[in-house]
């Protein structure tokens, strides 16, 4: 790489205006620049911007528990910026960072936009809010109906609201995803009448704790029954423990749901820099 190419690379990554305003995790940026320096070690000259991006990042990161991630969706040109926890578990919840299953579901929806067109959507356990933000980005033309992002954790709901505000600074509130606290065992008490009738339920990485299965299934029963079963759910799960997933599938069958596996997402093009070593299963649930 010549001098100008090094400058351009740093400008498009560490020096990107999104990263300057909303910096990614300092340790990630440091690892990236150090790796770049290692790859360029035989070059006579390393551009000054490489060194300055290392030092500036170190000084800037004030929030030790949270950092930003940017997903640049190139065709069409759009991007999502999410503030996320840098730890998998924070404030007693796993939902303050985005998990592989949500990224895989996002990729799946990018390739199957017909699934969401015109639909009023509720997401359960929505975490950082990635899916709802994606579906409302005007550049992507999903043309989804009302989107209600829910989570049982108050911290997640606050983070989702912050992320929605970050990604839709000028959009009228009614055209952005709504974010509300909803614990699955309190689904009956939720003010559903204030929202459009649900056509599609989404959930990613919510099948990991079997003590929550009854609450989740009761919540599904409530949603399906209230819509006379004219409803579909798409559930994305990282395959960590086959027995846990199997147990949930059995309980779905016992409650007379019909489960159909969706296309293989490991094979589909990823817009979200997923770790393809973690297998993610996406299923359609109907009754
Ligand atoms: C592993 S995180 C997944 C977050 C997000 N869907 C993703 O894939 O990035 C699981 C999410 O489910 C939520 N959750 C777990 N149990 C819940 C319950 N009983 N009621 C509502 N939300 C719950 C957690 O707060 C958390 O946000």
From TrEMBL:
GO cellular component: protein-containing complex
Highest taxon of the lineage: Eukaryota
Stored InterPro entries: Methyltransf_16 (IPR019410), SAM-dependent_MTases_sf (IPR029063)
Protein name: Blast:Protein FAM86A
């Amino acid at each position: 790489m010549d001098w100008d190419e090094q400058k351009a690379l740093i400008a498009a990554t560490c020096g990107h205006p999104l990263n300057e305003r909303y910096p990614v995790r300092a340790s990630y940026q440091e690892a990236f620049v150090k790796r770049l320096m290692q790859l360029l070690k035989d070059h006579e000259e390393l551009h000054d911007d490489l060194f300055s991006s290392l030092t500036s990042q170190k000084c800037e990161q004030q929030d030790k528990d949270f950092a930003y991630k940017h997903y640049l969706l190139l065709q069409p040109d759009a991007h999502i910026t999410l503030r996320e926890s840098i730890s998998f578990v924070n404030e007693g919840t796993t939902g303050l960072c985005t998990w592989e299953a949500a990224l895989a579901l996002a990729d799946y929806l990018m390739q199957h936009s017909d699934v969401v067109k015109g639909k009023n959507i509720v997401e359960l356990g929505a975490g950082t809010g990635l899916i709802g933000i994606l579906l409302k980005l005007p550049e992507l033309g999903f043309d989804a109906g009302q989107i209600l992002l829910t989570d049982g954790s108050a911290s997640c709901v606050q983070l989702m609201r912050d992320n929605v505000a970050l990604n839709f600074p000028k959009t009228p509130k009614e055209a952005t995803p709504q974010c509300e606290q909803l614990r699955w065992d309190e689904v009956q008490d939720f003010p559903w009448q204030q929202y459009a009738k649900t056509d599609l339920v989404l959930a990613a990485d919510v099948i990991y704790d079997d003590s929550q299965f009854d609450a989740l299934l009761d919540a599904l029963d409530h949603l399906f029954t209230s819509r006379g079963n004219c409803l579909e759910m798409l559930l994305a799960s990282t395959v960590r423990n086959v027995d846990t997933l199997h147990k949930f599938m059995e309980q779905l069958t016992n409650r007379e749901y019909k489960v159909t596996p969706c296309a293989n997402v490991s094979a589909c093009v990823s817009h979200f820099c997923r770790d393809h070593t973690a297998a993610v299963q996406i299923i359609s649930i109907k009754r």
